[in-house]
Amino acid sequence: MAENAHTQPCADADDLPELSSGDSDDDQEQWQSMEEDSQPVVTCLFCDRFQNSVTETLQHCSSEHHVNLIDVINKFNLDDYGYIKLINFIRSTKCDPSHLMAQPDGPLQWESEDFLRPVIQDDPLLQIDLTDLCGNEGKVESTSGPSVDDADYNSLLLRTTMAEEAMAQNVETIQKLQLLLHHLVLREEPPGSSTKVSSITELRADEDDAYFSSYGHYAIHEEMLKDKVRTETYRDFMYKNPELFKDKVVLDVGCGTCILSMFAARAGAKKVIAVDQSDIIYQAMDIVRSNKLEDKITCIKGRIEDINLPVEKVDIIISEWMGYFLLFESMLDSVFVARDLYLDDGGSVYPDLCNLSLAAVGDKQKHQESIAFWDDVYGFKMSCMKKFVGTEAVVEVLSADTLISEPTVVQTFDCNKMRLSELEFSSNFCLKITNTTDCTAIVGYFDVFFDKNCCKKVMFSTGPQATKTHWKQTVFQLAKPFPVQAGEELRGKITVCKNKKDPRSLCVTFELRDKKLTYSVM
Length: 522
Prior knowledge:
By secondary structure, the chain is an alpha+beta fold.
């Protein structure tokens, strides 16, 4: 669960202030400076020489080291992954150039998945398009001299064009980042855009990349691992139910540091496939090797929706997919994709059951600090801020003594049976009030169960009455508190759906006392 997730108001674009549609001269100069600074410097594959471009590097390898990289690619019929492994193999092993074309029959020396991990961060040789590189029949001449014939010249010209296109893509990426900043600040399409639909599609891709990138940061994994409620429950489920895992094939979706995969291997799994799109997968590979479990655990980088597993079916899917208010981040979508594609008949997803619950809150002091505060800020009226602050769901640890109702379950998620469409839902609820006071907020939390076929069933709760977890609770502050009486039944309706502009976030709407209140969990 991403620690850097935050909350933002779910408001209409018309309610929000406009940003300038143009950038200042200083901003443009700064962007240009960033573009100029991003010119690639390429290290040779076989020596310590630096070149100014990929094209110059290929020519240098051909003239100085007598290695035509295109010939190597063509000889061994390498695909994109094979090419990446080749580059990283050369850089990591410092192999003799003459050995590349003299590979024996059988597995290539760079076949190992270990060589998917970049040796040089942002290596320009890994960023070129393999189809464009090998699509032209002209090839770099494998001679000791710098001269090239007409075909070579055409090939080099093609690659120079590719380099220019790469620079143009860098500029485009920076422009997308500018658009993304607009989007993140306003949660709306950037003003003045004539291609709003395509821009938002690109922004969603950028946000998806940012989501996976956030899981490349070690602090997030440290926080999750140190959450004993979370981690020890998964461990206890597997260690106390070894009969479930004995000689089984297990898929770990969103494996992170591979802690769940290693639990499964130690519990008796025959094979564990660990999948993660973020760069943490490279550290996970090291972790698996350090614990001598590489014979059981296979790490794969990629989105489960995009990759092909080395097996047709798996017996068990494990995943720690839960987010704030259970559904934030939409990772359960990926678990369902994995289930529908790969889970064998009779297999199971774990955890298999989750409950989403609500309770009423009476905390006048907290309401004063977060909502009423804006009525008088150092003698100034800032009440307009309440319009935005009041629609932000707050993720925090709530004191159990502020609850003024019995909790009620508004939705149960059966991870083995639910369909993707059921993750957006509406549900009526009834909260039995236990205290006569003012209701100032509604709190949401979830419980997680490892139940199906388990001899030793385990569970954990993220509620205010339970031990604190890194998920905390999700609090929906009411703009205007209302009085309630002990014994009263507070009836309402909750609707949960994805934010159309950012599908990983949620829009949560409550209907209470003839009023409709909409919040965003982001």
